[in-house]
Amino acid sequence: MAETNTEKTPKTDKAPKTDKAPKTSWFNGLKAEFNKIIWPDKKSLTRQTAAVVAVSIVLGLIIAALDVFIKYGVDALVNL
Predict the structure, then answer these.
(1) What's 6's DSSP letter?
(2) What is the pTM of this model?
(3) Residue 33, helix vs strand vs coil
(4) How does pLDDT run across 19-34, given as a tens digit for each residue?
């Protein structure tokens, strides 16, 4: 019979450490990513802001109206 080596060599899951990139390359990468952003123009930004404010006000009024109706409905049921 042939002898087999049953000893397992420990495997390391970690990658070998490499030198860190200098901070300037990280900042340059960040600057490059910011340059890729398409910023909205003033007119578009104003229209979108107005839409968000209008929808928020309308939703607030709907929730307030539902709250009042539910409150009076519950009060009517309790006082029967």
Answers:
(1) -
(2) 0.53
(3) helix
(4) 665 566 888 888 889 9
